[in-house]
Every structure is written in structure tokens, then in C-alpha cells.
Amino acid sequence: MTSETRRLTRKGQETRRRIVAAAAQLMYERGLTEATLEDVRAAAGVSGSQVYHYFDDKQALLLAVIEYQTEAVLDLQQPLFDKLDTMAGLRQWRDSLVEYQRRLQCRGGCPIGSLGSEVAENNPEARLAVASGFLRWEAAIRQGLQAMHARGELRGDPEDLALATLAALQGGLLLTQLQRRVKPLEVALDASLDHIESLTERDRPHAGTASAT
């Protein structure tokens, strides 16, 4: 929540949130260009003056939507983020992401990624806001891997592994959306987690090797 939002009354915060939620849904369904401020006003059930009371222009609303979608995506995974310091927790997180896409019938893709693809080349401010959201997502994954590394259970660089895992997730989500099947997401995440698991296995003597006496 920004300092400006905190200065609003409770009713003002609720109205602002309703506008942002309506805008987020419309931008998710129609894209940035097709989701007009008039559409947002109608969907939120507010007047045009109320929209402009909280947001100077569509750019300001877009930045609020990026923050809103980032919080929504991360909050949904938060209970699982706390368990990413074990392979069992990582697999549970993977299963949850796949099942969520299955419930959505593989529609919509990643709300943050969808926004990012629309603003990456023509809106530097929004691009940085989306990138910041992805950095928070990456950090949540990295925290669990760093805990494993600190305990001596994981070889390799937790930062690189977290980035690779998030990249696999995003690529899997895009292909799942396009192909309308969860297999791309399953394969992408399994490949990433299998690699992480291989780095948790300690070197063992080969079968048949005599132990030192």
C-alpha cells in the first residue's frame, strides 16, 4: 500500500480498490488498449469523476493494476513459499501451480507476465514495475533455496537456480495458455526441480567399490 493510499479514508480505500480490481480484470481479459477508462468506470460502478479523483490518467491506473496483480499472484502462493526450503515443498508448490492452471482450463496465462508483454517495448515505467514484481517472485523462490544451501543440502548458486525456476515457470505458463494443456508447465517445472534435486544428492561410492579399511 502506498503512502497516498494510506491517507485515504476507509471508504476511499475501498472505492480505489474496487476501481483497480475492475481495471485489472478488464486489462487481463481484453488487454491494455481495449480496456478503456469508461469501461473501468462502468465495471467498478463509479462515476468518471471518482476515477479521476484517485488516478490522474490511465498510466497511473495501470501502475496500480500491476501492483494489484503482483500482490494477488504472490499472496496466492505465500503459504507455499514458506515451504520451498525442501524438495517436498518445492514439489508441492509445483503441483499447486499445475492444478491452478487446470482449474482455469489453461486460460489467461500469468497476470503479471501478460501485462509485461504489453508494456515491455513502449512503456518504460510500467516495464520496470512489472520487472519489480518478478524480482519479488524470484526472491520468494530464492529464499527457500538459500535456506537449503545454508544447511549444506544444496550445491550450486541459489540465485541462478531461482532465476532459472522462475523462467521455466513463465515459459511453461505461456505454452500452457497457448496449447490449452498443462503438460508444458509440468515439463518445464519438473525439469527445473529435477535439476535442483540433482544438486542435493551427495556423491556416493559406486556400487562394488571397496571401502577403505
Automatic annotation (TrEMBL):
Residues 36-55 bind DNA. Gene3D superfamilies: Tetracycline Repressor, domain 2 (1.10.357.10). Residues 13-73 form the HTH tetR-type domain. Pfam families: TetR_C_13, TetR_N. It comes from the Bacteria. InterPro entries: Homeodomain-like_sf, HTH_TetR, Tet_transcr_reg_TetR-rel_C_sf, TetR_C. Keywords: DNA-binding, Transcription, Transcription regulation. PANTHER family: HTH-TYPE TRANSCRIPTIONAL REGULATOR LMRA, TRANSCRIPTIONAL REGULATORY PROTEIN. This is TetR/AcrR family transcriptional regulator. It comes from Streptacidiphilus cavernicola.
